[in-house]
Amino acid sequence: MKKEKLVQALDEISPKHIAEAASAKKKRRGLTRIAAIAAILALVLLIKNVEVPVVITAQAVSRASGAKTPQRPNSLMEMVNEAEYNKAWKQWREAHNALSDARDNAVPLLRQFTTESCQAFLTGSESNLLYSPINAYIGLAMAAELASGSSRQQLLDALGIADTEQLRRQIHTLWESVYQDDGNEICTLANSLWLDTRLHYTQGVMDDLAYYYYTDIYQRDLGKGRTQKDIGNWIAGNTGGFLKKNAIRVQMPEDPILALYSTIYFQAKWQDEFNAGNNTEKTFHGTLGDTTCTFMNAKLRQMYYYWGDSYGAVSLSLKNGSRMWFILPDEGKTTEDVLREGQYWDMISHTGYTEEQGNCKYMKVNLSVPKFDISAQADLKEGLQAMGITDIFSFETADFTQALEGPACITGANQSLRVAIDEKGVTAAAYIEIPGAGAAAPPEEIIDFILDRPFLFVITNSGIPLFAGAVNQP
């Protein structure tokens, strides 16, 4: 089938067919939706009273590159061809070690962006607040690739990066470190760029976005309802349908020329599941008043307990090796105090917290965690401006001449998120690691860790912050 006919055929696929295909895929995998987290970062650019000539009419301008890190060889290969298996295993091991070394360098670069952005986007409201650092980081990195001059420099400074070459290595490391979809544990990221048919753009920049940022790029009339429906289908399809209600409400501002979407979707099970028979109804003392919630309880669970100047914390392991951190402010302290101090970063990034340093201890913990399924919309524009990213939001100062012709600016930056946890699991990052074995003898100390007042959570993958939230009223 020729490319033009294939594109036409894909364009004619209805939302119903997409939904049916997604449903069939889930059934084949035998997944049970026990918990999920998804996020979308959307950036939309406008053009200011400029007639832009049509130069490319193809719907697919560039297609996203695939994973660049070799997959771990299947053991069945060894029985078929031992020599090829040994070769593949050596290549995978070398690539795996190189990626691990790159990740050690990449994680510290996230500190400034994560601590500043979490403080900006997880404070200032008594409602539940959700935010995905990695989702925002990747979306803004793509915007930096499109920008020039001070517009690009402000984005690079906020991301803690020196230049675009380092930025490309950073995105490659983060993407390859967390991406996984093996049918059991899911951590999928996706990017897309939608260009208006009037837009005159630089093909080389589009190709760079496709290769370095794993981005599918399409060209459509962004003012038409069909395009918005296509974008909604793309979002729903790349978030497992978990944000379907949010996706169908995609709205373009007047006269858009470009829309950028970055998604992230996770699903995984607890390493040690909660027993629903131990659930209890308790009072949660929320910011908006007391409410009764279902709490998941685990008695005398052996685990590390962490503490900082204003909080205590524990982390629960997921089967893919990721962690969900629960951070409870001390009495008299708030989640905003913890975020402002920023001390939690050393804990979630596995730096600076050891028993020898006196800020964590292996203990028996009576754990009580509220079940929740919460959604949030986050307008990131004001927070990004406070972080020094200002030029891109004004026609007078924005510079996107690296990729586009004519004056353009970004109208907004928004995230849509949903988080759900229960006895079986929670969405999670997807880098596999083997949990530690041969634990020390159970300690004598016992501590109650009851999340019955506002708390923070962070989901990490090898120290990479994927999701964060302030649960003020589950």
Question: Which structural traits does this protein have?
Answer:
474 residues, 2 domains, 9-stranded mixed sheet, Antithrombin, Chain I, domain 2, 14 helices, disordered N terminus, Alpha-1-antitrypsin, domain 1, alpha+beta
Write a structural description.
- There is one protein chain.
- Helix 2 packs parallel to helix 10.
- The chain is built from 14 helices and 18 strands.
- It is an alpha+beta fold.
- It starts with a helix and ends with a strand.
- It folds into two domains: 30-66 and 104-269 and 374-419, Antithrombin, subunit I, domain 2 (Antithrombin, Chain I, domain 2); 276-371 and 432-471, Alpha-1-antitrypsin, domain 1, CATH 2.30.39.
- The longest helix is centred in the first third of the chain and has 28 residues, at 82-109.
- Residues 1-35, 47-58 and 427-442 have low confidence and may be disordered.
- Strand 9 and strand 10 (311-317) form a beta hairpin.
- Strands 1, 2, 4, 5, 6, 7, 13, 14 and 15 form a nine-stranded mixed β-sheet that branches.
Estimate percent helicity.
Answer: 25-40%
Q: What is the molecular shape?
A: globular
User: Structural class, from helix and strand content?
Assistant: alpha+beta
Q: Superfamily at the CATH H level of the largest domain?
A: Antithrombin, subunit I, domain 2
In the CATH hierarchy, the architecture of the largest domain is: 2-Layer Sandwich
Q: Could you list the spans in which at least 5 consecutive residues all have pLDDT below 50?
A: 1-35, 47-58, 427-442
> What's the total number of strands?
18
Distance between the termini: 51 Å
The major sheet is characterized as: 9 strands, mixed
CATH class categorisation of the largest domain: Alpha Beta
Q: What is the count of helical runs?
A: 14
**Average of per-residue pLDDT values:** 78
CATH topology of the largest domain: Antithrombin, Chain I, domain 2
Strand residues, percent: 25-35%
Number of domains: 2
Radius of gyration, taken over Cα atoms and rounded to an integer in Å: 23 Å
